[in-house]
Amino acid sequence: MRIVLMGPPGAGKGTQAPRLAEKINASHVSTGDMLRAEVAARTRLGLMAKKFMDAGDLVPDQVMIDMIAARMANDDDNAHPSIILDGFPRTVSQAEALDDALQATGGAIDAAIMLDVERGELVRRLAGRATCANCKTPYHLTFSPPSKDGACDNCGGELVRRPDDQPEAVRNRLRVYDEQTAPVLEYYRAKNKLTVIDGAGAPDDVFKLLLSSVRS
Ligand code: ADP
Ligand code: ADP
Ligand code: ZN
Question: Does 97 reside within a domain?
Fold first, then answer.
C-alpha cells in the first residue's frame, strides 16, 4: 500500500504519520525531515535547500524528485510492505513524476488522504510547535507540552523551534500551499484517490479517522 498524506502546514502530518506507519507496518518518508537532516549535516544539498525552507518557499521540483527517487530505491524499505509519503508530492509536477516512476515498476499510489484544518487553527499550531532535536517527536507548547520544560519525554532530547515557524514564513507557506500544493488535491480527486478527513479534533480522534480511512 502506498499512501500520500497531505494537508497544509500545521495540519498534523508529522504527528500522525509515524503513528500510522507503526500501526500498519509502513515506512514513513518525510521530505521535510530529509531536508532538515541535510541542513543539519551541512551538505551541499542542505545549504542550497535552507534558503528556500527558511523563507517558506518550496525547494525546486527536480531536486525533490531526485531525492524521493533515491529514497524509494533504498533497500531499507523492502522490509516494509507499505509506504507513507509525508510532504511529497507538493506540486502537480511532483505528483506526475511520482506516478511515472511508480508506473515504470508496475506500482501506483493507492490513496491520498488530506487532513483538513482551518486557517486560524493552523496558525495557532505552528506558533507553538516544538520538535525534539534528537528523535523528532512533535510537541506543542500549549496543546501538548512536554512534562519537563524544553526536554523530550521520549528521549530527553532538546526541544527546538523551526525557523520557518516564524510568522512571516508561516504566512508565505500558507500562500505557497494554496497556490502550488492545493492543485495536487484536485490531481488525486480526478483519479478518485482523494479522501479528506477532519483534522480539527484531538490527535487521538484524528488518528482514528485516519486509520478507518486507510482500512476502508
Ligand atoms: P510542514 O510539515 O510544516 O508542512 P515540511 O516539514 O513538510 O513542512 O517541509 C518543510 C519545508 O521543506 C517546506 O516549507 C519546503 O521548503 C521544503 N519541502 C519539504 N517537502 C518538499 C517538497 N516535496 N517540495 C518542495 N519543498 C519541500
Ligand atoms: P505538519 O507536519 O502537518 O506541519 P505537525 O504534526 O508538526 O504538522 O503539527 C503542528 C503542530 O500542531 C505541532 O506542534 C503539533 O504538536 C500540533 N498538533 C498536531 N496535531 C494536533 C491536533 N490534532 N490538535 C492540536 N495540536 C496538534
Ligand atoms: Zn526525543
Answer: yes
- 138 occurs within a structural domain: no
- Please list the active-site residues: 13, 90, 129, 162, 173
Give the distance, in angstroms, between the CA of residue 174 and the centroid of all CA atoms in the same chain: 14
pLDDT surpasses 90 at 73: no
Spell out the alpha helix ranges (H) of the chain. Answer: 13-24, 31-40, 44-55, 61-72, 92-103, 119-127, 167-176, 182-190, 203-215
- d(C-alpha 37, C-alpha 33), whole Å: 6
In a domain, 167, yes or no: no
d(CA 5, CA 7): 7
Answer yes or no: is the C-beta of 129 below 6 A from any ligand 2 atom: yes
Nearest-CA residue for ligand 1 atom 2 is: 9
Residue 11 lies in a domain: yes
Structural contact between residues 53 and 35, judged by C-beta atoms closer than 8 angstroms? yes
Map residue 147 onto helix, strand or coil: coil
User: Which CA distances in Å does 166 have to 26, 111, 126, 170?
Assistant: 32, 32, 8, 6
CATH number of the domain that residue 30 is part of: 3.40.50.300
Helix, coil or strand: residue 42: coil
Q: What is the pTM of this model?
A: 0.95
pLDDT greater than 70 at residue 75: no
Task: Report the number of distinct structural domains present in the chain.
Answer: 1
Q: For the segment 144-190, what is each residue's pLDDT rounded down to a tens digit?
A: 999 999 999 999 999 999 999 999 999 999 999 999 999 999 999 99
Could you tell me the residue range of the domain that residue 193 belongs to?
2-118+181-215
